[in-house]
Batch of 4 targets.
Target 1
Amino acid sequence: MMFNSFGISNASIIQILVVVGIFIAVRFLLTAIYAPGNQDNPLLLQLMKREGFRDWYDLQIKAGLSFPDLWLLRNGNISSLKWSEINRVAGVFSLSLGEFLEKLDLLPENPQLAICHQECLQLQNQLQQLTQDKEILHQEGLRLHSELQQQRRELKQEFRQSTFTQLKTLLTNYPSIQQMVGIKPELPAKNLLSMFTPVDNLLSEWGYEPIGKPWEQVAYNPQFHQPDAADIAEGESVYIRFVGYHHQGNILCPAKVSRTLPGGGKTIKN
């Protein structure tokens, strides 16, 4: 037996080299087995990448699989695994068992299930269409609301303009009337009455009709009259002190009535 300078025989050196070679070969084999780039099952590799698994060994540990089970999984022989093992694999991929089997196209064919699936797709399409129709109606409602608001503003402006046109004579003369009355308080009121003709014209155009005439004696009617005393009874004779107005059967404001005329005039005796 020959020995080198370290006192180790050549046979021992050969044995050591054989062991190291076997270790390297096993290490290489395991690296190949657990390599993340193995293309035996692209779908599983895609799911592993999505969930952040480093390699097949990482998947094996987290799913609690044995080495043979891992090979079955990699080679696509998933149907050979137990349901409990398949369910654990589905769990580490954040999928239900049904979703996992559907992705792997392992669900058994079922005509009734296919019909239900088709009906489900139809309902989803109908729901999507209804959602789109709802959004279209919502946008149309917003558009109509905007148009209505614009029409209101335009009608309001037209009403103001029309009313001002009707009362323009009165409105332009009213400040001058105030000035004249202040300077000449003895100015006869009849000289100013013609200024109020536009008001009469406007009321006539609107169809507003007066309730009674000033100082007219009438029978008290609570529907048309507003008394100045709470003890005035229905049917009692009263004087109209201020007229009211009605339009198409609606009382806009009742006429104000009293037992006496303004200025301590006539008094009605019961």
Target 2
Amino acid sequence: MPNERAEHLLHSWSRLEAAVGGSIGTEPEDAVLRLCCEPRFAEFREQLEYCSSVCTLLRRYGRISDEYALCPSDSMLDLLDTVLHRLEKPETVLDVMTPLSGLLVADEDTNVLATMDHMKARGLSHIPLLRQQCVTSVFSVETVFQAVLDGRITVGSKTVMRDLCEYLPLEKHMNHEYCFVDERTDLLTAADIFEKGHTRIRKLKLLLVTVDGNPGSPLKGVVTPFDLKCCTAQK
């Protein structure tokens, strides 16, 4: 039994080194150092260093009378399983986003006031505008506010999104920003993007998820800061 646990530890450690090399692009001997520099694994730093010392000892001296000198604990084996799972199958924006099928969306021919009623009913502040499933802009109440404030457009019962084209480009939004990310973006990176996109002047409101992060690719879903908070609260 002690030998089996030691072999389990060494096997898991070898998997970890290989996974780190594939994910971060580093040599096996630098695995722990590089892994601990990753924010999503910082909480495991001391434990991983401990595991590294144990594995080094087991590898260097091998067995005495066909037995390993150390028998890893359940906690150590569970730790490596946890780190391996997070490294090999990290949670991504796909796990928390609202998919396209669940979104309220519009196009250039959609009625503005009717859309605002739907947004109010669903508690939405921003919705994507699409053309052939690709994002052309994002509509919000702020869009109408800008148009009315300028005094050049009267928003009435027949106003459609196309009539607000001057105010719809993403860079035209006064206080809000939007960012495209690819579907492989992990949740820690997504949270960091939101944090860096929040300033006193502008706030990042949505992450627009496409397969490759390209604005010209079809939209797969959206992520809000609230989505990330809910995910964290559930853990």
Target 3
Amino acid sequence: MVNRQMNIAVVILNWNGKKLLETFLPSVVQHSNEADIYIADNASTDDSIQFVTSQYPEIKIIKNTVNGGYAKGYNDVLQQIDADIFCLLNSDVEVTNNWLKPITKTFESEPNTAIIQPKILDYKNKNYFEYAGAAGGFIDKYGFPYCRGRIFDTIEKDEDQYNDLAEIFWASGACFFVRSSVFKQLNGFDEHFFAHMEEIDFCWRAKNLDYNIKYNGQSKVYHLGGATLSKANPKKTYLNFRNSLFTLIKNAKAPLFPTMFIRLTLDGIAGLKFLVELKPKHTLAILKSHVAFYCALTRLLKQRKSLPHNVNYHQKTSIVVDYFVNKNKVYKSL
């Protein structure tokens, strides 16, 4: 009996992104012959959809009625797409020749692998990894994310050190391959996140159901990064700190209280650091993130009760201590 070839849907979320689509869509069309390509439009008000319709009539367009961010945007659209594998691709990603084949091969040979991330390099500096995902992500004891190839603001040069197939804890939402069956089983992304870290929460929930998550360094893409919100934007700081707390309290194994106490203290130190750096708006963003966290605590604890908590999620006690105190700046020194 011959196995049926997996059907892949490459789904690009768009919101007023004509310039990005003009730049990055050609590579996706050129190198994705084995996939169906979709534009998931989050109620854009520019002429990006007219551009796609006129220049790429073969691309399917699904329009959302509201801009629900990354989480709701994908949740709404993916309900309307029939495929074995969803590739959630940012609109600011350039893909490369044969980028899909290593991913498909891994899914076909590993039935328990639910999510895969390729190598993500910096579009502006192509010899270096890109901040959002690099060579696959992990979480420390206090919920701080880091990557092979990127710890905090230290970015590694790509010297083929991560050309492997490796088990990781979370895959980047910039280029996120997931089995459609698992996406549906987990009821998609948590829409309370709106944007940032919803993929980490999703991966954590998948891990707690004993699925594997992999990085495949034989597939390579280039990510511009910061196209929607730059690192300098306090709103990004707010979402990252708030959503990280959401993720931790929903998914971490008990006991929670000492972990959360230390984490909130570390956030306070981060806020002071921003003040010293004369970035008071980022300090305020952290304070607002904590207020939002406490306001959402009842809901988060209800969500926690409904979820399993099986996995030992952290490789290191504290990436903050490793990086700032022990001066371990690259993944292989941890």
Target 4
Amino acid sequence: MEATSRAQQAAERAGTIPPLEQVRSDVWALALEMPGGHIPYSLCYLLRDSAGGVHLVDPGWDTEANWAALLAALGELGGAPAQVPSVVATHLHPDHLGMAHRVRRETGARVILHEREQQALAGGWAVAATGPQLESWGVPGERRAEMAEVHALAAASPEFHADAVVADGQRLDIPGFDLLAVWTPGHTAGHLSLRDDARALIFTGDHVLPSIFSGLGLGGPSVTNPLADYLASLEKVARFADYEVLPGHGYRFTGLVERAAACAEHHGIRSRQVRDVLAEGGSPTVWEIASRLSWTAGWGNLRGYLLYSALAQTAMHREYLRDSNHSPST
């Protein structure tokens, strides 16, 4: 895997915001701030169509600073808000969809999501962080208040109705582009990647990131196992080995096959750790299993949303292993 933007890579390491970058003659990458400091920025992409309109992919968190940055970027491209015909959000999280509300209000742009993501938004996607859920996971009473951050995240993405929904393989209406929707569930149930064969680009949102392993099942209840979905989705995008990857965070890179394999192995390691805990016998709760796994930040340092994510993923791995069709390789 190799970074194709040294400026973005350096900024991620330093925790700063990289400048607007041109990716192709008609594609730019704009870094937008992320509140909270855990991840410094998200990446919004601007696509100038053959008629002069500028379409957005993942407009980022809705802050005054981000709105000003977007207006400045449009100005640098010689455009204006009135020239934004559409917005595509790879998924429902506020660091990707958040500013779509304002962009639509100010520009009249059509907002596009995958159909599953619209269903999740309509249904209240963060309902998993409830008292009964936390009790069933064995979360100590004194730690449950932290999970309010999960509801705060959902509140930052209130009920939202897209102007259009797309399905897997559907072509987006962007003149001069042959941009195809690639359904890549796992991070959320309706996560989208976008593929441009002519430019050899693939926009991966939070599905495949260069230096972070995405959390799974973070888009509300799912009828399928998000881990199984994610592993299948990795195989789907790994077919495009020669494409440049334009992720939702971090930096642009090549080497999608290598990175997809690393993402799969990361979750394979977690499944094997959960399997080993379960093999010791007894009926450990999700909390007890998670406390015995290895976490990048360390179990004792997980708080709030990160703690909820760790517990949700532990539950996913346990369910994945209970399915007789799934057995992580050693």
